[in-house]
Each structure stands twice: as C-alpha cells, then as structure tokens.
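Researcher: Going back to the complex we discussed earlier. I've cleaned up the inputs and rechecked each line, so this should be the final set. Can you rerun the prediction on the complete assembly and write out the structure?
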Amino acid sequence: MHEKHAEYTDVNEILKGEHTGEKVCIRGWIHRTRNIGSMVFLNIRDPTGVVQVMASSDSVENYEEIKPLLLESSVEVCGEVAEDRRAPGGYEVRASGVNVIHAAGVFPIQEDHSVEHLLDNRHLWLRSTYMRDILTVRSTVFGAIHEYFRANGYKEFQSPILTPLACEGGSTLFPVDYFGDEVYLAQSWQLYAEAAIFSLGKIYTMAPSFRAEKSRTARHLTEYWHAETEAPWLEFDGLVELAEGMVCNVVKRVLENNREELERLRGGDMDYLLRVKSPFHRITYQEAIHKLNEAGLDIEYGDDFGAPHERELTDIYDKPVFVTHYPQEIKAFYMKRAPEDESKVLGFDLLVPHVGELIGGSQRETDIGAMESRLQGEGEDITRYGWFLDTRRYGSVPHSGFGLGVERLVTWLCSLEHIRDSIPFPRTPNRYRP
RNA sequence: GCCGUCGUAGCUCAGUGGUAGAGCACUCGGCUGUUAACCGAGCGGUCGCCGGUUCGAAUCCGGUCGACGGCGCCA
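Model: Rerun complete. Updated structure for the full complex:
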C-alpha cells in the first residue's frame, strides 16, 4: 500500500506525452488485463482514456493481490510514465504501487454481445467508449441549446409534466392516476408556453416529453427530451432563421469541443457536419411533392411524407432542408394559415439524413374561431381547451414556436444507427428497464 | 396496430428426428513485454414456456411469452 495522493493525472495527458519520465498517480478501472507469469499488464480506463500499466512481482509488493483482478476492478496506480512503442497508445505507466479500491466480480459484458444483452445491462454498458463518446456529445448539445437561446434573449420557462389536456389530437398520452382523476404525462410544453409569452416575452425550455405511441422505429422514444421555444411578435421567416441558427450553433459547439468523439462515432466521416452552415435549403411542400415524383416516388399532393419520402428528400440535398407551407389538413390545429393561400399553413419541418424530422414549427393561429372549428373537426371537446383559448381573447399577438427532438439531434450528429443510444436509459415501447 | 426474424452453457453461436456441441468468460497449472496474449486441464444446460405428432423431439405441428428489425404515427 502506498500513501494517498492529493493529485491524480488524467490518462489522456499521459497519452499526449505530457508526463513522460515523471512519476504520476492515476485512478480508474481495469479495462483489460494480460498476465504472463511474474508480470501483469493492466489497461486502465478513466473518463479521459485508456493507458497500459505494467506491474511485476519485483516492482509492486502486493503483486499476488493484483494478479487475479477481474475486469472493471477499480484501482489507483502510481509509477513512472515511459514512452514505449510496445504499449498501446505509445505510453505506459510502470507501476511502483497499485492500490486496489475494489476487486470486481465477473463483469457481465464480454467482447461478444447482442443488442438485447447490452440493453439489459445498460447501467454497465455506459462504461464503454461508445456510450461515453455519445453522452459527452449529448452534454455539449444540451449546453449549446441553452447557450443559444439565452444569448438571444430567451428566458427559460417550465411547464407542468402532469397535465389534463392533449396538445395534438392524434398523439397518444400516458395516463396517470391523480387521486382518482386521470391526468397525462405532458407531450409538449407549447400550450403553457403560449400563455407565458404574454408575460415573459421570448421563452424556451428543454424538458422530457412523453408519447404513448408504440412506434417501433430507429427514431422514436416514448420518453425524450424536447427543446421548445415560443416567441411573441415572431413571424414565420424569423422562426425559420431562429431554428437554423440554433442547429448551426449546436454543430459549431460539438465540432469545437467533441471532435475526437465525433470522429470515432462517425468513422472519420466529418465532411457532412463541416458543411452544416447557414443557409440551409428551403423548399415548399408543393416543391417537395414535385421533387419526389421526379425521383419516381408515388405520392400525391395532400399526402403526408412517410419514411421513404423523407429519406429521398434528405438524399437530394447536401444539407438540412426546411419543408414549408404544408396543406393545413395534414398539420396541427394551432398553425396559422398562409395569408396568400388559406389552404396552406405557415409551418415547417426541418429534415436531416437518417433521422428525418428534426424540428417542427409554425407561426401560430390567432383567430379563435378558426381554432375552435378546427378542434371540433378533429372531434375534440372544446371546453377542455378553455384556458388555452383565453390566449386568443386578451391581447392576442402574432407569435411562433418550434419543437426539436434532442435525441434526434444527437442521433444525427453522432450518426447513430438507433436513437436509443442517444440517451443513457432509453424508454421504448418494449423496454423500461433498467 | 401491421409485416418479418430470432429465443440452445454467464456471453456469442453451431446443431433439420436417434446419448447436448464450439469459441470466449470463469477456476486451476505454465510462461518476465503482453496487444481481444498464448499453451494445457477443469467447471458449466429444464435447448423460452405449454400442448401435440412420434418407439424417440433442441429439431416437425399448434399455441403462448419475450427480444430484435421494418412499416404506420410523430419530435
């Protein structure tokens, strides 16, 4: 046993050659181990990287204690850093002391693993380089979204998670027993936000949203983080610019802060991300239908896009693409009609490769009569929207907002096969554990 | 909700009607420069579950449960 050390060195500093020849102490977990008689090699992982430690029966007094250590045991190691081409990464720590913090049991995750096994052991799989890289990018994404809105004068506003009403007719809600009454887990912040802009002005949030749809796809979660914004006096063109600016800021920040992680996750293909700068492509729904028909897909004006249509549109363009001016029949009741053509709405979707719809937004309808007839047309009980309709009764102003699926953003940035890896503990129709 | 694939050792899988297999992990032994170390030995099973066909079922049939992949719906 050696004495406690006040300072520990990050593994990545050793791998950058910053401590060669010095005595350092590191602490972390055994990532891999190789034992050849009276010498053992321990690859030690900390949050910054993995470095090889060499310990022999001559160099450490408790060699017999460390020789049988299993993967993921936690240790402190002190020793001299040496540059050595035989070591993975080119550097190793030649141990003079190894302090066993905890000798782990047999770790359930081995080299061979299935998707199912990794999901069952998600709490342990978080330790993988893969998950660490994604969650590091995710942290930057959350920070960049907060930063963008605050830098543009937006205040953060919170709405309730337990709510008595739906936001959009079609979506399915998770019911919750509220002392005998039925309430629901929120699927959007928007309706409450539309009440708050009259007080705070420009606002945003990042909060969980819940959808009880049994969507079995690589881009749906039942619980996801929803970045939403709402602003008074903001009209459609300004809204599109706001969305574009936000995405650009996130891309800029992850490229600045997480270049290494992104290169590992994207297999070195960074060209696409480096292209993501203003302006994005902007086409109308009508133009999109035309493009799709030209490309040989069978879709008529008035149909909503399916996965193949979104895929084709994102393939055509080399950057994210805004699709605007959808027919009002296929969009939500709260979207404002386009003044030049009442059959269309001032709404947009931002489409990106692989994940499809990243953001949906609109200028909001302010005509209370139009909203009421629209809700009735969808079979909604208008009395449940009483308080919300008050936002159109007392000093109504033009306003706009959008919602972004944060996990879809992370999935897109990291080029993930499935959205479940963009969140630490994914909730999907078939899975709510661990 | 619809379509499809798969459930065999702790993990990844092979096994198409006749005594349950391999690699890895783990345990023991060997090895002073390993790179997913290597060599030898050992441990390890209600073949998802229920029923049926058969002299005999991991294998064929029916049902059921679970997971995964895709579509639809959405962010």
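Model: Worth noting: The two ends of chain A are 37 Å apart (CA to CA).
Researcher: Good, that matches what I expected from the previous run.
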